[in-house]
Design brief:
This protein has 308 residues and is an alpha/beta fold. It has helices at residues 18-25, 42-50, 86-92, 109-113, 139-145, 148-157, 164-177, 183-189, 199-215, 217-231, 245-257, 288-293, and strands spanning 32-35, 56-60, 76-79, 98-104, 232-242, 276-278, 301-307. The protein has two domains: 18-109 and 217-307, Rossmann fold; 116-215, Orthogonal Bundle (DNA polymerase, domain 1). It has a seven-stranded mixed beta sheet with strand order 3-2-1-4-5-7-6, with helices on both faces.
Amino acid sequence: MVKEKKMEKPVYHIPVLLETAIEQLAINPDGIYVDLTFGGGGHSRRILQELGDGGRLYSFDQDRDTRANCPDDPHFHYVESNFRFLRGALRWRGVDQVDGILADLGVSSHHFDATERGFSFRGEAPLDMRMNQRGRLTAADLVNDASTEELTRIFGDWGELETPWKIASCLDRARRVARIETTAQLVEAVRPCTPKKDESKFLTKLFQALRIEVNGEMEALKMALEQSLKVLKPGGRLVVIAYHSLEDRLVKNFLRSGNFRGEVEKDFFGRSQAPFEVVTRKAIVPTAEELERNPRSRSAKLRVAIKR
């Protein structure tokens, strides 16, 4: 029996492309589903509304703060773990295959709004940026201890910033005078190389690059995507919402070909060996109505594939 929908006040984070994601999951009421990015629980709660007595939902999050958002539902199972450990965490719980996987990538509104976590350049806070507060590496460690070559790679690869070597050199000069321990000190340290016209965009990319490196986000995403192939049943659906070009490129290539190069392998007879059937040839993006309601959804791209 499918549960009646309940209206709940949004907390922690406004889920992006909520109804579209649920529709694309094509939920079987008695199926097993995974939410790789629990956060405020918006997507998880909506999935639970579609599950019947035999259904189960396993929701992953490495941030212990999210435990407070867990719904009181017997079909819900919270997994305090990085989604890079998807397969192992499920097998430990007696689950080998699932009917669908949802991942809403990026950073929740909570992390940006919780100034003390150091994810935002607005205000002053310790330069932290760890999703998992038990992790050792912080953004301050990177800024102060990484070589200029390493910082250049981080700003170029993950921030896609122009002249990343100039930014690395700018930081190097500042940290030789004093350690950079707060978000405000970082903003001040890079001021000499911050373009006045696009200051906000520049700082957004800078903070994004450090956050991605601190949390190993790209490697974790690759691992989760690869493991999705092993845990999804034939006919199972993978739904991913990405927010910047780096994530979206990885997702698009993997759904198309089963690898991150995007190159479809063929057998001796020239038949495609791609493990997925891509449902969304073109990414689904938020409607004008959703953009007005939730401006932070503006860069979201949703892609869907079915395991062959």
